[in-house]
Design goal:
This protein has one helix at about 125, and strands at about 1-5, 10-15, 25, 50, 55-65, 70-75, 80-85, 85-90, 95, 115-120, 130-140, 140-150, 160-165, 180-185, 190-195, 215-220, 240-245, 250-255, 260-265, 270-275, 315, 320-325, 340-345, 350-355, 360-365, 370-375, 385, 390-400. By secondary structure, it is mainly β. β11 and β12 (about 140-150) form a beta hairpin. The protein is globular and about 55 Å long.
């Protein structure tokens, strides 16, 4: 077993100074927008800066992780952590990092690909089943986002009975925009969020329900399609599809009260979005967008709204490049019910205050640790993050009292 010492020094950062909780003011400083679109409603972007009065203590728990992508807590308090090159490890709360767990399938780790998300089955305590996503080579230079399930051995050293239960169709020759978070709904079905594969010649398929490109899919635990999915039984439609018209979703969580699936997805140059993924709805990509192409040209016709296409709950321009998102459920921070987002380009923890389905405030915490890829909340309300770096780290976040 490889071991890393816990870094004892605690770094302290604050995004809000000494102002009292609940105050708001001008938007967070974020630079000039790339586009001149008018928001569809008030505070759809650049909501007032929220000030929770929290200072965050950042403690590095482990280092030398190679592009870690996801964290999930085991019942005994240890964490499963994925590394994009195709390694799954166990990390203790004291920073002990295991050797790679055996049995992980071969992954296509070029560019944005690799071993991605991992979650526990709801009955993990009895079954020891986990689900994970990865980019899989499919021949002819093509690859796809794949979902597999496996049993974690009793000694947690290997995966047993690995089975692929879903593959995004069609496969494509691309190394980008794989998605791909997994979220269990309240009935034990899996939401899997998928990207548009980052190619001009394929992204239009995000509007085509005969493909899985640029979609949220909802599947049973064995990979079959639930019969109450919105396109189940419809000719020329993939029965797994839940919603469509997405660009590249990498964060998702169920609302703790409503059970709705909230997602955060990457825009192009501008236009990162928070959406509520509802059954059968079209979220517009690449027909509408609040961003522009990286070249500076308009996306499509250069429009941000069209009848029959959903507006985002919130968007950013310039982008934060969102990784994971979670609703905060604990009491350690005074943020219960707020959305927390891992900022890659922003290199910050981004907090959104909500009033129902509207964002009323935004707060950012520049933690000084690099590109934040994933967030997980432990049973004590502490936050745990990993950084998307070749020498990535695992960090524990707590409020400084």
């Amino acid at each position: 077993m490889v071991r890393y010492a816990v870094i004892a020094a605690v770094l302290v950062f604050s995004a809000c100074g000494s102002e009292s909780a609940g105050q708001s003011g001008p938007p967070v400083q974020q630079g000039a927008p790339n586009t001149n679109f008018e928001p569809a409603f008030a505070q759809q972007t650049r909501a007032p800066q929220a000030r929770s009065g929290v200072e965050i203590a950042v403690a590095q728990i482990a280092g030398a992780l190679v592009e870690p992508w996801a964290i999930v807590f085991l019942p005994d308090g240890r964490m499963l952590v994925t590394e994009r090159p195709g390694r799954l490890r166990i990390v203790t709360r004291e920073g002990q990092v295991s050797a790679p767990i055996a049995g992980v399938p071969e992954v296509d780790a070029r560019n944005q690909g690799g071993l991605l998300d991992v979650v526990l089955a709801p009955d993990f305590t009895q079954s020891r089943i986990i689900y994970f996503t990865y980019s899989e080579r499919r021949g002819g230079g093509e690859n796809t986002t794949t979902v597999a399930r496996a049993r974690l051995s009793q000694d947690a050293r290997r995966l047993e009975d690995v089975r692929v239960i879903f593959r995004q169709q069609p496969a494509w020759a691309s190394t980008g925009h794989f998605g791909s978070r997994i979220v269990f709904d309240r009935e034990g079905r899996l939401f899997v969020v998928l990207g548009d594969r980052q190619r001009d010649n394929v992204r239009g398929l995000a509007q085509d329900i005969s493909t899985h490109i640029g979609k949220v899919v909802r599947i049973n635990a064995d990979g079959t399609a639930p019969t109450d999915n919105p396109f189940a039984g419809q000719a020329n439609a993939r029965p797994e599809i839940w919603s469509y018209g997405h660009r590249n979703i990498q964060g998702a969580d169920l609302h703790p009260e409503t059970g709705d699936l909230w997602i955060v997805e990457h825009g192009p140059q501008g236009g990162d979005e928070v959406n509520i993924a509802r059954a059968g709805r079209n979220y517009g990509w690449p027909v509408i967008s609040y961003g522009e192409e990286y070249s500076g040209l308009p996306v499509g016709e250069g429009i941000a709204a069209r009848d029959g296409m959903e507006q985002p709950i919130y968007y950013w321009d310039p982008v934060i490049a969102p990784g994971d998102m979670d609703f905060y459920r604990g009491d350690l921070f005074p943020w219960r019910g707020d959305i927390l987002i891992a900022g890659l380009r922003a290199q910050a923890l981004v907090r959104l205050e909500l009033d129902g389905e509207r964002v009323t405030g935004e707060e950012r915490f520049a933690l000084g640790v690099g590109r934040i890829r994933d967030i997980a909340e432990s049973e004590d309300g502490a936050l745990w993050i990993v950084t998307d770096e070749p020498n990535g780290g695992l960090y524990r976040l707590t409020p400084r009292r």
